[in-house]
Amino acid sequence: MNRSVLSAAEQTAASYYDSDDADRFYAEVWGGEDIHIGLYASSQEPIAAASRRTVEALTALIGGLDSASVVVDLGSGYGGAARHLAQTSGCSVEAVNISAVENARHRSLNQQCGLQSRIRVHDASFEAVPLPDGCADVVWSQDAILHAGDRQQVMREAARLLRPGGALVFTDPMAADGVANSALTAILERIHLADLGSPERYRHWGAAVGLEREVWDDRTAMLVRHYTRVREELLQRQAQLEQRVSADYLQRMAAGLQHWIDGGREGRLSWGLMRFRKASA
């Protein structure tokens, strides 16, 4: 895709996730196919297993899907969720993502599973999704909307894409309600953003475009647990990882993860599962 059409925040995210260091780290440490925050059954559970549990929990929020259903996945990464949804329900998935590197791996994994006919991967921004109005039964996103230059525009796009009665389900690392940007400086500088969403901001943004929030399942403890597990894994495997990932990247990642851990423990951050509903016609 033409990066000149992306916002500054999106260009930063695309450049980061397209880098060799990020690609190798996320694929090998973060969770493999599901590079998102996990829901942990125990403190030492494998990252990939916990990350897949989040996919299953969001799927449960949707309710029923079948072979006639269409899901639009915003910020689809390596496609773990898209493949899970297509395999378990037979639905079609329109996967939207700005990282060319992630999308190439996504398409390759789809082919290996024989799912290329059910999952279309779009090299595109989720602020301007190249799909028609009312095409989706479900809009799905995991820990991606924070990277948007305009999160309200992402909510507008979700509302546009959904059919009447359709659902938006997502997770996103957020500021806790009422927390000022000045309390998040270290995190915001690390991810090159001016601010984060919050549960109440998303509720307000959704209402403004005709999406009513039905579920807010606060699981901030899992944000802390996940970043702790990833940091532990990094430190335990650092010598091995340095053969494939630069030492500078690993050092910066370890420091950045600690900022997220501290922010969650101190009540400055929030994370959980949300479901919004578009009104029926």
Descriptive account of the structure:
With about 280 residues, the protein is α/β, with parallel strands linked by helices. The protein has a single domain, classed as Vaccinia Virus protein VP39 (Rossmann fold). Helices cover about 45% and strands about 20% of the residues. The protein is globular and about 55 Å long.
Top keywords for this entry?
281 residues; alpha/beta; two-stranded antiparallel sheet; Rossmann fold; 19% strand
Question: In short, what is this structure?
Answer:
46% of the residues lie in helices and 19% in strands.
Order of helices and strands: HHHEHEHEEHEEHHEHHHEE
Tell me the CATH topology. Answer: Rossmann fold
CATH H-level name... which superfamily?
Answer: Vaccinia Virus protein VP39
As a whole number of angstroms, the C-alpha radius of gyration is: 18 Å
How many strand elements? 9
Biggest beta sheet attributes: 7 strands, mixed
Strand content: 15-25%
Count of individual helical segments: 11
* Tally of individual domains: 1
Helix content: 40-55%
Distance between the termini: 35 Å
Structural class: alpha/beta
Shape: globular
User: In the CATH classification, which architecture applies?
Assistant: 3-Layer(aba) Sandwich
